[in-house]
Amino acid sequence: MDLIPDLPYDIALQCLLRLSYKQFRTVSSVCKTWNHQIHLPEFRRQRKAGCHSQKLVVMTQAKVDPNINSGFVKRLASPVYRVSVLEVGSGRWSELPPIPGFSSSGLPLFCQVAASGSDLVVIGGLDPVTWEVSGSVFVFDFLSATWRRGADMPGLQRSFFGCASDGDRTVYVAGGHDSEKNALRSAMAYDVERDEWAHLPDMTKERDECKGVFQHGKFHVIGGYSTNAQGRFERNAEAFDVEQFQWGRVQENFLKSATCPRTCAGGDDEDLFMCHEGVVLALKGETWQAVTKLPAEVSDVAYVTTWQGKLLVIGCARFGEPHIAYVLDLKSYKWTSMETPKEFSGHVQSGCYLEI
To answer: Which domain of life is it from (predicted)?
Structure first.
């Protein structure tokens, strides 16, 4: 069957490749042929190769009262989080449909999000009503614009864990703490396509409130603290080699200082980046180097991510002020302010980069 009647296949395919991701839901419902085409791995590869893919930063972000007074955001008494989407190419912001059953209460608090192909995976967190730890998994398919329930995280209750994805089909989880506030060494992997969890070997160290970063076939788990440390962050890190299926040695003094590692983000090559004490740091080899100062408007950083030579920082100047976005060119080290609508100026808890 022709993709589009009376058009050569190559031309018809180019028409589909150029569509916005927001049109895929309609496209998939037109006919089985179109639905089959947009779900092929080759279709995604061709969109990227032809520079037609769209670069998205997806975040769990607090809703805010649109009434802004004196530059401060009037927050809801109990913040309600939703999934917001920033198209970094166009600067457009939007919001995903709520997870079924969470439309009024919002997302689980402190949940983690990760990209898997054209899917967004939302894992864990605290129930926004009862504050009970949840092992829930929800997957949003950007091609059909629908949510589905995934297999819950197995084993004991886990919160404040490190999380990262290989960007293809596997999401990795490590550390955090259990219901008794004991820091954990255990780690797991979630195969999104099969909807299956698998246990990984334990890490060498307990890591509560650690940061997960995936780079070049390795799941890096950075910082965190042990049960006895109770909030005193450590500087070390360790990495799980996916191909070797084992953890490497603990890298002592990995971080420049003993601090919360939530602003760590992986770069396009071997570099890691981190925002700390008003500057952007880059890990060159084994040494952290300050590459530029943060703009004063985002000195209180909530979220950091990178893509194709760019670094996105979302934050505010002081507590209570609207959160805004700045982009750093990692070659020229020049900042560009992104327009941030008032309704998307809430605090960001977690996020990920996704290319469709």
So the answer is: Eukaryota
Q: What's the helix, strand, coil split of the chain in %, to 5? A: 10, 40, 45
CA distance 14 to 18: 6
Q: Two tokens at 341?
A: 């609508």
Dist CA 335 CA 327 (whole Å): 6
Core vs surface per residue 297-326: b (16+ CB within 10 A) or e: bbbbbbbbbbbeebbbbbbbbeeebbbbbb
Alpha carbon 5 to chain centroid distance?
40
Q: What is the pLDDT of residues 39-86, one digit of tens each?
A: 998 999 999 999 999 999 999 999 987 665 544 544 445 789 999 999
Segment 103-111 long-range contacts (CB within 8 Å, at least 24 positions apart): 105/80, 105/129, 106/63, 106/79, 106/80, 106/81, 106/82, 107/60, 107/81, 107/82, 107/83, 108/134, 108/136, 109/79, 109/81, 109/349, 110/159, 110/160, 110/349, 110/350, 111/60, 111/349, 111/350
Question: What's the DSSP call for residue 6?
Answer: T
Quote the CA–CA distance of 142 and 310 in Å, as a whole number: 23
Identify the CA nearest to 235 among candidates 251, 255, 249: 255
Q: Are 350 and 121 in contact (CB under 8 A)?
A: no
Query: Which domains are delineated in the chain?
Result: 1-52 (no CATH), 54-355 (2.120.10.80)
Helix, strand or coil for residue 297? helix
Q: pLDDT band at 104, cuts 50/70/90?
A: confident
Residues 261, 223 contacting (CB under 8 angstroms): yes
Single-letter residue type at 203: M
Tell me, yes or no, if the pTM score tops 0.85: yes
Torsion of Cα atoms, 24 then 29 then 32 then 35, to 10°: 20
pLDDT surpassing 90 at residue 94: yes
